[in-house]
């Protein structure tokens, strides 16, 4: 039965992890995977999460099946975060939201629904994009192309967004094309477009009748929850109907609980009801209904004013620490003798930095120094800390 099954290629990022785990270098640093570590190099267990779990453990509950679309209080909290609790889309009931298995699950539910809705549509993702976008939409049956995004030659060779290229790619897209946009903290480059540029993107999306799918995996890691969500408000204000996937993997440091969501902004409440019914069929035929624990924790935190405030504080601390590490990286590289101006690292946002290092330099970083980033030069700055930063700076300086 399986004799003709070919060996699939290793997942590039998870493969890097395996290589890292096998590395015996005592100084090794993993800047490959997109995970936030605290200043001690530990994966944090947020206090708000611990408090919610403690309360839950005091009154243990049985684990029945959840509704197909998840915990109502969770879905409502997602809507509130994404659109604003008192926003018109939420109060009018025209958002269909489902709990999903991480941000990946939200994307996949949306992709499967879109395939039924508009089977001939193409999907456009940014060049480059999160490595799973292409495979996920391809596996949902779509032809996936990319729109111009990063240009290594921009900003006098320091790199940045090729915005004219992005606009012309979008302008050339056929009506109905699904455009996957990173709402904030672009992965992998760390370069977001400006609010004014978003306005221009929205104008093209509207004029060309494209279908926006916003991937919001890092809300709160850029400038703040509301600040990062401002992009969503712009799409709402433009009168568009669109998809938003949400992830709490990073913002709650709940990677393994697989907590995310999908929200679809519809024309009105009646339409949202119909869309929700279809999303539920996608879920029912894939995994029936979501798991209980992660969703219950997130709902408990977001729906309790004290825990919510604690979460915002802890999320803010993660955001501030990442920014401090970016600055330390720039300063440390200079101190280590790097002549070129690396200050662009502080203009990037979110967990990642496109460092501008070549594949050869990234390979040397790994083999000679045990510093792991992807071959594209992407480094997870959220894994830097006060103990490993000097070593990383020295290593980068040597390969530059
Ligand atoms: N989208 C982007 C842009 C991401 O970076 C990630 C996580 N690396 C995801 C989606 C998936 O999130 P999750 O881990 O919650 O499935």
TrEMBL record:
CDD domains per the UniProt record, alphabetical: AAT_like
Keywords: Aminotransferase, Pyridoxal phosphate, Transferase
Enzyme's top EC category: transferase
Pfam families from the UniProt entry: Aminotran_1_2
One cellular component term from this protein's GO annotations in UniProt: cytosol
Gene Ontology annotations of biological process type: L-phenylalanine biosynthetic process from chorismate via phenylpyruvate
InterPro entries: Aminotransferase_I/II_large, Asp_trans, NHTrfase_class1_PyrdxlP-BS, PyrdxlP-dep_Trfase, PyrdxlP-dep_Trfase_major, PyrdxlP-dep_Trfase_small
Membrane-spanning segments: none
The keyword Cell membrane belongs to this UniProt entry's keyword annotation: no
Known cofactor(s): pyridoxal 5'-phosphate
EC identifiers of the protein: 2.6.1.-
Subunit-structure text: Homodimer.
Family label: Belongs to the class-I pyridoxal-phosphate-dependent aminotransferase family.
PANTHER family: AROMATIC-AMINO-ACID AMINOTRANSFERASE, ASPARTATE AMINOTRANSFERASE
Name assigned to this protein: Aminotransferase
Lineage: Bacteria, Pseudomonadati, Pseudomonadota, Betaproteobacteria, Burkholderiales
């Amino acid at each position: 039965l399986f004799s003709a099954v070919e060996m699939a290629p290793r997942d590039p990022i998870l493969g890097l992890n395996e290589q890292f785990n096998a590395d015996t270098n005592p100084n090794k640093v993993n800047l490959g995977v997109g995970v936030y570590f605290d200043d001690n190099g530990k994966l944090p267990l947020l206090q708000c999460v611990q408090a919610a779990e403690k309360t839950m453990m005091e009154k243990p509950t049985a684990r029945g099946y959840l509704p197909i679309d998840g915990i109502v209080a969770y879905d409502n909290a997602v809507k509130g975060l994404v659109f604003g609790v008192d926003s018109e889309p939420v109060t009018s009931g025209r958002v269909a939201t489902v709990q999903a298995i991480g941000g990946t699950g939200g994307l996949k539910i949306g992709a499967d629904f879109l395939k039924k809705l508009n089977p001939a549509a193409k999907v456009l993702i940014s060049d480059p994009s999160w490595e799973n976008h292409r495979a996920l939409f391809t596996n949902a049956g779509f032809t996936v192309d990319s729109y111009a995004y990063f240009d290594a030659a921009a900003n006098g060779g320091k790199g940045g967004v090729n915005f004219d290229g992005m606009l012309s790619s979008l302008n050339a897209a056929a009506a109905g094309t699904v455009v996957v946009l990173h709402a904030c903290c672009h992965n992998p480059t760390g370069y977001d477009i400006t609010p004014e540029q978003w306005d221009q993107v929205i104008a093209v999306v509207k004029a060309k009748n494209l279908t926006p799918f916003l991937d919001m995996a890092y809300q709160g890691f850029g400038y703040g929850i509301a600040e990062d969500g401002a992009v969503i408000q712009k799409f709402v204000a433009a009168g568009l109907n669109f998809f938003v996937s949400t992830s709490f993997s990073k913002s709650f440091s709940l990677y393994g609980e697989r907590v995310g969501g999908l929200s679809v902004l519809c024309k009105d409440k009646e339409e949202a009801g119909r869309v929700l019914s279809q999303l539920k069929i996608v879920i029912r035929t894939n995994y029936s209904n979501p798991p209980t624990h992660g969703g219950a924790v997130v709902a408990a935190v977001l729906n309790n004013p004290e825990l919510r405030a604690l979460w915002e504080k802890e999320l803010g601390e993660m955001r501030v620490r990442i920014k401090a590490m970016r600055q330390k990286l720039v300063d440390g590289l200079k101190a280590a003798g790097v002549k070129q101006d690396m200050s662009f690292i502080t203009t990037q946002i979110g967990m990642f930095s496109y460092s501008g290092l070549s594949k050869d330099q990234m390979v040397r970083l790994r083999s000679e120094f045990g510093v792991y980033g992807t071959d594209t030069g992407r480094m997870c700055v959220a894994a830097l800390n006060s103990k490993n930063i000097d070593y990383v700076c020295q290593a980068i300086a040597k390969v530059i």
